């Protein structure tokens, strides 16, 4: 698959449905595009908006992972394991 096609496919996904790694990869591409300064203002704003959405989704995924690790480290060896629900109650 051509890199341009890959970028279009990734940009069409909702950030909350992407893996953490895919989110970081797309953010890298957006930063590179914005740093080049070759984008029209409207395109730059759209990329920036997408980048903010990706950053927020990535932060949520990272926070959820940190919470899971914290829960696992707090439990002693005798505690039963349970599924983690990342959704706030």
Can you summarize this structure?
By secondary structure, this protein is an all-alpha fold.
Q: Return the string of H and E elements.
A: HHH
**Mean pLDDT reading:** 82
Number of DSSP strand runs: 0
> Share of helix among residues?
55-70%
Q: Give the termini distance in whole angstroms.
A: 41 Å
C-alpha Rg, in Å?
17 Å
The largest sheet is: none
Can you walk me through this structure?
- This protein is mainly α.
- The protein has three helices and no strands.
- The chain has helices at about 5-10, 20-35, 40-75.
- Helix 2 packs antiparallel against helix 3.
- The longest helix has about 35 residues, at about 40-75.
- The model has no long low-confidence stretch (mean pLDDT about 80).
Write the layout of secondary structure elements.
Elements: H1 3-12, H2 20-36, H3 41-74
Helix pairs in contact: 2-3
What distinguishing features does this structure have?
single chain, 89 residues, mainly alpha, 3 helices, 69% helix
